[in-house]
Design goal:
Elements (H helix, E strand, L loop, with lengths): L2 H19 L3 H4 L5 H21 L1 H7 L6 H27 L4 H25 L6 H21 L3
Helix pairs in contact: 1-7, 3-4, 3-5, 3-7, 4-5, 6-7
Length: 154
């Protein structure tokens, strides 16, 4: 899959996000809220953290890299860090209720930075553009958009 296919996938996500943003805010908040978005983000990060911590070799190989002993050890440390960040995502709604929108917008910016890094890695060929990488990337983009939309002050 080349740059043309990657850009078409990104444009599909852009259309989905744009259409979602046009739905009246009160209707969107009926079933979803920012606290739930933080929980969704925590579960997503926790899943990858657990994979890196307990299945580092498999996770590294899924990115198209050779899993050396040093890489597997690094994956364990990164997995623990991701689990820690997932835990922080889980408790933020309980600790900062008054400023949750600010934390949500910060999270949207932070997740966007990771999304941009993923796009760069796809474009230059560091990460394979296959379903095993594009589907999680798409989910990550959706979570980022949820952080952004639900952080908007009503």
């Amino acid at each position: 899959m080349g740059l043309k296919e990657l850009l078409s996938i990104i444009s599909v996500f852009r259309v989905i996000i744009f259409n979602y943003s046009n739905i009246e805010l009160s209707k969107r908040r009926k079933y979803m809220n920012l606290k739930l978005v933080f929980k969704i983000g925590a579960v997503w990060l926790g899943l990858f953290g657990a994979l890196m911590l307990f299945a580092g070799q498999m996770t590294i190989e899924s990115f198209g890299m050779e899993a050396t002993n040093d890489m597997v050890n690094l994956a364990r440390w990164m997995g623990l860090a991701m689990l820690t960040i997932a835990g922080i995502h889980w408790v933020i709604p309980m600790w900062v209720e008054d400023n949750l929108n600010n934390f949500g917008m910060f999270s949207a910016v932070a997740w966007t930075a990771f999304n941009l890094l993923n796009v760069y890695e796809f474009v230059v060929g560091i990460t394979p553009t296959d379903a095993a990488n594009l589907i999680p990337f798409g989910i990550q983009v959706i979570i980022t958009a949820l952080f952004y939309f639900y952080s908007q002050k009503s």
